Amino acid sequence: MPRPIRLPAQLPRLLVERAVAAALEEDLGLAGDLTSQATLSVRATATASLSAREAGVIAGLDLAAAAFRLVGDGVVFTPLVADGDAIGVGGVVARVTGPARLVMSAERVALNFLNHLSGIATLTRIYADAVAGTGAQICDTRKTTPGLRAFEKYAVRCGGGANHRYALDDAILIKDNHIAVTGSVTAAYQAAAAFAGHLVAIEIEVQTLAELEEALAAGARIVLLDNMDNATLHQAVAINAGRARLEASGGVKLDRVRAIAETGVDFISTSQITMAAPPLDLGLDVEIGA
């Protein structure tokens, strides 16, 4: 049974509008939509359907709505589904009505956000479904498109995944290079534990079973098992014996994710769901023009 989808309450409006305004400015340039100005009367109106040309999971409706809202007065964007909803081929996601010039001018920005984020949500749902019933949770990473991290991580949640840390400042993740500089797993973990406040989570990456045992002895409560094969992951779970939460990471692909989950790890993080997700094919088609 897939886990219930737990979405963030809502993307912050300020964050959405700032990103969408920048995208509109990029697309409209200094002179605006020349094609629409040349071909469409200023009085022309349009009613259009935004529909799915392939099946998937929707994410990014707030950004699409903001594109039509910010382009000018009079455009009404009416969503017919919610973020996190699955939709089939031909399903209508939203309807758009208003001045035809404005509808056409905002179309590409709205679709760029919606197609990209829905693609992430769709691939995340595929990964989440693949590990259903194992107790493992699919997580994202910081491998995201610069400037779009908050939205891409939101899309992961829409697909049924969970978010790893958002940035360098909201958790401590001790990686192999930190350990190399400090000299040992123990030294790195103890330094982090002495530094962190009581609300700051600490995770440490290990690459061998010996490093795992050292991390556990140092008091680690969250351990990232980096690039371990399935047999080693099974051994790691046995050695851990429930003392720490275990995360498997490194080269996680869809064809292996179920086997990783069945080793008994708690989390599986992968950059595939944000960096390799193809856009979901959604399109805007005018039904009525006047």
The overall pLDDT, averaged over residues, is 95
Number of helices: 11
Hey, roughly how much beta strand do the residues contain?
A: 15-25%
Order of helices and strands: HHEEHEEEHEHEHHEHEHEHEHE
Task: State the shape.
Answer: elongated
Classification by helices and strands: alpha/beta
Low-confidence runs of at least 5 consecutive residues = none
Calculate the terminal CA-CA distance, rounded to whole Å: 49 Å
Q: Give the helix proportion (percent range).
A: 40-55%
Round the Cα radius of gyration to an integer and report it.
23 Å
The total beta strand count reads 12
Largest beta-sheet details? 6 strands, parallel
- Lateral arrangement of strands in the main beta sheet: 6-11-10-9-8-7
Structural notes for this entry:
There is one protein chain. This protein has 290 residues and is an alpha/beta fold. Helices cover 43% and strands 19% of the residues. It is built from eleven helices and twelve strands. It has helices at 13-28, 34-39, 61-70, 100-130, 149-158, 176-182, 185-195, 209-218, 230-240, 254-261, 272-275, and strands at residues 45-52, 56-57, 76-79, 86-87, 92-99, 137-139, 172-174, 202-206, 222-226, 245-249, 267-269, 282-289. The strands form three sheets. Strands 6-11-10-9-8-7 form a six-stranded parallel β-sheet. Strands 3-5-1-12 form a four-stranded antiparallel β-sheet, covered by helices on one side. β8 (202-206), α8 (209-218) and β9 form a beta-alpha-beta unit. α1 packs across α3 and α1 packs across α4. The protein is elongated and about 75 Å long. The chain starts with 12 loop residues before the first helix and ends with a strand. The mean pLDDT is 95.
